[in-house]
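Reading a protein record of the kind used here takes little practice once its layout is understood. The reader may check this reading against the record printed directly beneath this paragraph.
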Amino acid sequence: MYLTPEEEKTLNGEFGESLQKAIEILVALGDIYGADRLIPVKSAQIAGVSYKTMGDAGLEWISDLEGKVKIPSVLNPAGMDIARWEEMGIEPAFAKKQQEIIEAYAKLGIQTKCTCTPYYLEGFDIGLDDHIAWSESSAVSYANSVIGARTNREGGPSALSAALVGKTANYGYHLDEMREPVVAVEVDCELSGSDLGALGYSVGKTIGSRVPIFYMKNEPSKNEMKSLGAALAASGAVALYHIDGVTPEATRKTFTRPDEVIPVERSQIDEVYETNKDIQSSEIITVGCPHCSPEELEEIADLVKGKKLLKEMWVCTAREVAERYPDLVQRIEKSGAKVVCDTCMVVSPATNKYASMTVNSGKALAYVPSMCKVAAKYASIEDCIKEAGVIDEN
C-alpha cells in the first residue's frame, strides 16, 4: 500500500506513539483488504462507548491515547443518560466508569455527543460520495444507503484511528465496484411505518453482508429507510442497500438486476409481529433504536396527547435533538414516558432488570434478547403506546 512521506513518518513514530498506533491499525486493515492507499475522510463516528461493552480494558486503552482528532468526530450511545442516569436505575459505580470513558474521548478532541444518528446533528453534515469513517451499524447503513456517502463498517479502534489520522484505507464501500448490488429483494405488497423494520429483520439473515437492491411497491420515507437499514445490519450484516429509483445511487444510475432474487410476501412481515407473541404484557416499552428523529418525536407526542401511561416507556434520542425540540420532550414526558438521551435499550445495563420488552425496532428485536437477555416482541409505535397501558384523560 502506497504511503505519502508524511504517512511514512507517522508510521515510524515521528509524530508520537498514539498516531503511530493509529496508522498501524489503518495500514494493517489496508494490507488485509488490498487497499492501494489511505484517503481523507470528512468525519468519524466512534463505537465502543458504553462501559457495559468496553469494560476496564477498553477504558484503559482509550485513556492511554494522546493527541487530538483531525476531523469532526462524535460517539456512539453510552450506557446511560449522562444527565439522568439515576432515574434509569444506573449504579453509581457504573456511572463513574462511564463518565471516565466520556472524558477520555473528550481529551482527544472528540465531541461527546453520544448517538447512533449523527446525521441529525447540526454541523455534522455529509453528502453524496463523501468519504467518512463511521462504526455504528445503523449509522453506517444510513450513511451509505440513504445519504450515499461512503464508509465501511468500522470497528471502534479503526474509526478512532481514522479520526486521529484524518484518513482511512481505500477499500470496501469506498470503491465503486463494491457498491454494486448482488442480490434483489422483490416486495409484493405495500409497506409503511414499522413494516420496514420488519422487512429488514426478515431478510437480513438471508442477505448476510451482501449488497441488496429492493424493488418495492411504494416509496418509503427516510425514517422508514432508517428502520430498514438498522434491522438489515442487526439481523444480518448489511452495510449498504439500494432501493430501485429511490436511494441516491439507484436514482442516478440503473443497476443490472441481480440474478438471485429474494421474494417477500405480506405473510413474512406479519411473522415478525408474531415474534414472542406469548409475551402477554411487557414490563417496559422502548422506542428509538436508532435514535428518534424530530418527526418521530412529534408522532409520539401526538399519540400520547391527553394520555397517561401505566408502564415504563423510554423514548431514546440524541441529546442535541431533545434540546432542539423541548416542546416535544415536554409533551411526551407529560404522559409519563421518559425521553432518554445519550443511550439506548441495547447498550444500557438498566435494561437488564426487566424480563420482557416491546420494541418498535427490528434492530432492537435482534439485539435485546442476545445482548440484554430480555425477551422482546415487535410492534408499531402506536401499538407500543397501547402496550404501555393508556388512561385517556380527555
User: Anything to note?
Assistant: The first helix runs from residue 5 to 11. Residues 25 and 158 are 6 Å apart (CA to CA).
